[in-house]
Amino acid sequence: MTDPNFQSAIPTTPIPPAAPGVFRCAGLDVGTNSVKLLLADLTADTAERVFDTSLNTRLGEGMHAYGGRLREAPMRRTLDALDDLVAFARNNGATEIAAVGTAALRDAENREEFLQRADERFGVEIEVIPGEEEARLSYLAVRRDPHWRHLPRLIVIDVGGGSTEVIQGEPHSDQIVARLSVNLGAVRLTETYLKSDPPTIAQLAEANRVAAEGFARVSFRGGDPGEESFHIVGVGGTLTNLGAMHLNGVRDLERLHGLTLRADDLESQIERLASRSVEQRKTLPGLDPRRADIILGGAILLSHALARIHSASVDVSTRGLRWGVLYDRFLR
Questions:
Q1: The predicted structure's pLDDT at residue 311
Q2: What are the pLDDT digits (tens) for 151-203?
């Protein structure tokens, strides 16, 4: 299957139906930068990916310069994409669809207009979830995943378009001990501080200063002397793209899922991105061209999150919030 983070088209040919007795459902994540659909078959305690895609619609584009309101063009792009995704899910056997909205919809003054238009157009209620719930569901997506469910101690970093979450879980549990929501995401940091193309030295310094201040409130660490270390896992498009770049263009989700990125490698990628224009970044193997303008901002945020929790590496998860939504809503 084509890597959904690098495709914009939705298949026109039907997907094979679910096996008898298998429940097929869908999860939608309406984010600041992209909308993501997961179509999955559920059994007693597992979710099997049937189809997974991410469409960059930039719902939060220009929002903060527009008085905290969603602009018409990004709203229309996002509604068009959601309309297509919902139709695709229903036409391919999804009997239930759970949809959540995150940072852009949390902050938008006119979010009710968007939610009403979505409900009227394709009949799906989008639940705008607070940062605490977003953190819980992102953590759940990692804790329930076969790659990490056996590990006792996990910290999850979720780099979004409008915010970044750092979540520490209880050992061997779905429960969260501590979390921090930083009101900076890849889109927000780029639009506010990295305005030149490529960014100036002063802009890079300011972006790093703001990111460091944002994560300064994180009080937990990846590992303390005498204690078993936490395992660090990152979710979101920033992680997937950095992983694909690290593997020099590998775009297969299953190969990227579970990949370990070292902090030193991340710093090398930041240097490479910072010295290139957006057009030059688009030619880098593994980087989705639609993320070329915001990937540097996302990488800077990830770097400061790792530094604050004293971690030398992070694992890449290609199964983020939408997986947590399905685990929570349909696999309790």
A1: 93
A2: 999 999 999 888 898 999 999 898 999 888 888 999 999 999 999 999 999 99
Domain boundaries, the chain: 4-129, 133-321
Interacting residues of 137 by C-beta distance below 8 A, sequence separation 6+: 100, 129, 321, 324, 325, 327, 328
The topology under which CATH files domain 133-321 is: Nucleotidyltransferase; domain 5 (3.30.420)
At residue 109, what is the residue type? E
Helix (H) or strand (E) holding 309: none
Mean pLDDT calculated for residue range 33-45: 89
> Which is it for the CA torsion 206, 212, 215, 217, positive or negative?
negative
Fold agreement (4-129, 133-321): yes
Domain 4-129 adopts which CATH fold? Nucleotidyltransferase; domain 5 (3.30.420)
Predicted model pTM: 0.86
**CA 86, CA 64: separation in Å to the nearest integer?**
28
